Amino acid sequence: MSVSALEFTRKLSAHPKSAQERAAILADPGFGNHFTDHTAVVDYRAGESGEGSWQEARIEPYGPIPMDPAAAVLHYGQEIFEGLKAYRHADGSIVTFRPEANAARLNASARRLALPELPEELFLESLRQLVDVDRDWVPTGDGEALYLRPFMIATEAFLGVRPAREVSYRVIASPAGNYFGGELKPVSIWLSTKYARAGRGGTGEAKCGGNYAASLIAQMEGEAHGCKQVLFLDEANDNAVEELGGMNVFFVFKDGRLVTPALSGTILHGVTRSSVLQLGRDRGLDVQERKITLNEWRDGVASGDITEVFACGTAAVITPIGELKSEDFTVGSPDAAAGEVTMSIREQLLGIQTGTVEDTHGWLTRLA
Ligand SMILES: Cc1ncc(COP(=O)(O)O)c(C=O)c1O
After folding, report:
1. 243 CB less than 6 Å from ligand 1?
2. Cβ(313) to ligand 1 under 6 A?
3. Which residues are reported to carry the modification N6-(pyridoxal phosphate)lysine (predicted)?
């Protein structure tokens, strides 16, 4: 890529939030409710022969996206996204966690959704540029961060099913507190038996909007039963545990095994998942990526072999799972205490991300 393609122009917001307004938001950011003053944008156009280029990299004021009503994304859902966080360290620097893994996953999603790949350096630069201009939006509270949401949409105006020739890549940012709100405590999750989020050859491994649209009905069912997230199984594979609607899942065994479902083609390659696997190996746990069925989960909790279950993802980091509920049975208890291994890995991971624990794997990248 040429150097000029990396040069972002800047048009600053004429109406940024005042320092007081920003302080009021940062005092209690919640999750996904508020957005910073700017956005990063890079457009793509396919050339005559098909091979296209990324152009007009820029920082713009945050605001509505001008789009033709016939834009392909609105009709055929050609869209992908990412999620990662920027943390303010004690020395004032702003740092992010394994962004090259997100860049690689964005491109894996792009290939699956027939969207153009974005050079890793352009991905990283878009984050640097946005965080630089909106640096005052990075919260400093315990467990808080600036959530970065890169996404790519098909903007070409046409009706017809083929890959769009015009695409827009954007990044927005949102100050974030605890994903599940309030104090960290074990969550209840709902077992979806009626709905699947992914199937063989489908898009389960891609981070595309359609997967999440497909999971909403199950999510609503779960919420009606007092659950925060939904667990999906692979019914055609002995009810193998897959993942939650927005998180991967881990099991801690009494004998020191740390088990997570193997990446089967239908599970998202979580960056947190891969980091937890590494931290597990570092502390000498017997780390296993393999098939784990619903029956093994039920039997393991009943016999005491499985001592802890937790969910992990960028948004909620590591969250203990207290109980799994379904129409017919319950595993665990909503009052279960957070497990020791779960909390210890959570603290280590958060410590690395926020700069209080040494980053021995070189996972941090300074953005500003
Ligand atoms: C379906 C799904 N699984 C797992 C994850 C966890 O991935 P990560 O750890 O990269 O945030 C996410 C969140 O991105 C997700 O949406």
Report:
1. yes
2. yes
3. 207
Of all protein residues, the one whose alpha carbon is nearest to atom 7 of ligand 1 is: 270
The string of pLDDT tens digits covering residues 62-98 is: 999 999 999 999 999 999 999 999 999 999 999 999 9
Q: pTM for this one?
A: 0.96
Nearest CA to ligand 1 atom 15: 246
Residue holding tokens 């960028």?
314
Displacement of CA 278 from its chain's centroid (Å): 18
Residues contacting residue 267 through CB under 8 Å, at least 6 positions apart? 198, 204, 205, 242, 243, 248, 261
Q: Could you tell me if the CB of 268 is within 6 A of ligand 1?
A: yes
CB count within 10 Å of CB 329 equals: 10
Buried-state track 213-233, b at ≥16 Cβ within 10 A, e below 16 = ebbeebbebbeeeebbbbbbb
Give the distance, in angstroms, between the CA of residue 63 and the centroid of all CA atoms in the same chain. Answer: 23
Kindly state if the Cβ of 206 falls inside 6 Å of ligand 1. no
- Name residue, tokens 């999620």: 83
Task: Please give the distance, rounded to the nearest whole angstrom, from the Cα atom of residue 14 to the centre of ligand 1.
Answer: 35
Question: For residue 103, how many C-alpha atoms fall within 13 Å in the half-sphere facing its CB?
Answer: 16
Distance of CA 247 from the midpoint of ligand 1 (Å):
5
Q: Whose CA is nearest to atom 3 of ligand 1?
A: 247
CATH 3.20.10.10 fits domain 187-354: yes
Tell me the domain boundaries of the chain: 3-176, 187-354
Q: Which fold has domain 3-176?
A: D-amino Acid Aminotransferase; Chain A, domain 1 (3.30.470)
Rounded CA separation 272/317 (Å): 7
pLDDT of residue 3: 46
Our mutation pick for probing the ligand 1 site, out of 84, 203, 247, counting the most ligand atoms within 8 A of Cβ, is: 247
- Cβ atoms 60, 41 nearer than 8 A: yes
Q: What is the mean pLDDT of each run of 10 residues along the chain (368 residues)?
A: 73 98 96 97 90 95 97 98 97 97 98 98 98 97 94 97 97 90 85 92 97 96 95 95 97 98 96 98 98 98 97 95 95 92 96 96 98
Rounded to a whole number, what is the distance in angstroms from the first to the last CA of the chain? 23
* Residue 152, ligand 1, Cβ within 6 A: no
